[in-house]
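Ticket opened by: R.M.
Priority: normal
Category: complex prediction / small molecule

The reporter submitted a protein together with glutathione and asked that the result be attached to this ticket for the collaborator who will pick it up next week. Submitted input follows.
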Amino acid sequence: MLELYQFEHSAFCLKVRLFLQAKNLQYKVVEITPGIGQINVFKLSGQRQVPVLKDGETIVSDSSEIIQYIETITNEPELLPKKPHEAAMAHLIEDWADTTLAKAARLELIKAAAIDPSLRKALLPNDLPNSFKGLIDNLPCEFMNGLTEVLNQGQSTALLNSLEKLSNSVSSQPWLVGDSLSIADIAVAAQLSLLRFPFSSGESLFGKGCLGFADNPRLDPLFTWRDQLEKKLIETDPAIL
Ligand SMILES: N[C@@H](CCC(=O)N[C@@H](CS)C(=O)NCC(=O)O)C(=O)O
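Result attached by the on-call engineer:
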């Protein structure tokens, strides 16, 4: 049985889950508590980040490496395009989503959580005691602000600009590369979870997100596309939780 070591709200972990769901593979989720739980991740994989996939004796870390590994288990359906042009486009979009989009979306979410205590609380791991959650809830915003690396306006505008183009693209045709689902769609959809939370983030977070993104009508087609993609895959999710 495949085991996925993950954080509940990590976009890179969602990327691997969506890929496993699209491949219709059974897997077990092992929830890791950020910080303390990463000691076990380190013992298992020699590094501290999630996602990590365990397949018997084989341990793979890094979402892109995991995806390459899963592809060796089954290449059905084809999510890593084979035609050279499509393969290049899918690779470049995945790389953009994992780097530029991931970083900008993470910083936007930190900014949003700094000004919204309820978002901060909802993002905490489920297994934290309620008393501790209450403490976080009451931390003054200035304290959170002091901890954050803030996106400047130019970076927010650049992110919005790229997302509007993607929003227009999915309005006219559903797949970012070729004429079927690929890793490009999955990688982008996963990182969008930080800007507006999907169904899989749970009731307390679904639909919430970063001001200027989650509530931006120009991005609505993009988040609706993401929600439909996730819903389609979740309906057939073979995960054993
Ligand atoms: N390049 C990695 C990035 C993974 C990553 O950033 N993981 C974050 C969670 S989203 C993490 O484990 N952070 C904890 C840490 O860095 O200690 C991938 O694609 O899997």
